[in-house]
Design goal:
Length: 112
């Protein structure tokens, strides 16, 4: 059975950037359509961004619109969440999902 794996999180200063990938493993697993969620300590899981199965349309929550970009690597079975101008409130565990499967998450910490 396939799975999704996130990586690329880390500690950055406000205004910094990260671009964690979400990679699908297993021959029958596709990461698309893909959604990214995040969960901060003590808060509910929050939807962040989506890309359609066709990889043509993307959607974003108001909290990240204009700063985050979800994109697909057409040569590989993976997608990225490009996060620019990171703010303190973006600190959370970030998860990708294709619906049936969820990754284990990657921690993003924004701190000065």
């Amino acid at each position: 059975q396939g799975e999704l794996v996130e990586s690329g999180g880390g500690l950055v200063q406000p205004g910094g950037l990260l671009s964690p990938p979400c990679v699908a493993s297993g021959s029958t697993t596709s990461p698309f359509p893909m959604r990214w969620y995040r969960q901060a300590p003590g808060k509910e899981r929050e939807w962040v961004a989506s890309i359609t199965n066709s990889r043509e349309k993307t959607y974003y929550s108001d909290s990240v619109k204009g700063r985050f970009t979800i994109s697909a690597d057409n040569g590989r079975n993976e997608a990225y969440l490009q996060m620019n101008n990171l703010q303190l409130e973006d600190t959370a565990m970030y998860y990708c999902t294709n619906g049936p499967s969820w990754g284990q998450g990657t921690q993003v910490t924004v701190s000065s």
